[in-house]
Design brief:
The protein is of the alpha+beta class and 116 residues long. The chain has one domain: Orthogonal Bundle (Arc Repressor Mutant, subunit A), CATH 1.10.10. It contains 5 helices and 3 strands, in the order ααβααββα. Helix 3 packs across helix 4.
């Protein structure tokens, strides 16, 4: 995970070094919701992988209701793609969203073409 992942502690860079990405408090202020920032950080760090709702819930430690609410908001904004199979609903970062590139830069994640 990167320092963009809200649920992990982040450390300040050594003196004289530029900071990559944002720290926890900055991301929460930017996104206005701890839950939203945690979900975005999780899904942004795994752009080629779809996660289902309960998997996101377990990874972030959020309640199912909070996860469902924020996933709905992010899907409506076009940041996430949703697909359903049988009894599961999967979500993935939408790389065609106009917000995808800025989000990756904010989180200090590698460019899409450099991800294996």
């Amino acid at each position: 995970m990167t320092e963009c992942a809200i649920h992990y502690a982040s450390a300040d860079p050594p003196k004289g070094e530029m900071k990559q990405g944002f720290n926890d408090k900055e991301l929460i202020r930017l996104f206005g919701s701890t839950s939203r920032a945690m979900i975005l950080a999780l899904l942004s760090s795994r752009p080629h992988r779809s996660l289902y709702q309960r998997e996101i819930m377990f990874e972030t430690g959020l309640s199912l209701q909070a996860v469902q609410r924020e996933l709905r908001n992010l899907e409506e904004l076009g940041i996430l793609k949703k697909h359903e199979t049988y009894h599961r609903v999967y979500y993935q970062i939408n790389p065609t969203s106009s917000l995808f590139k800025p989000l990756r830069e904010i989180c200090g994640l590698p460019r899409r073409d450099s991800i294996p």
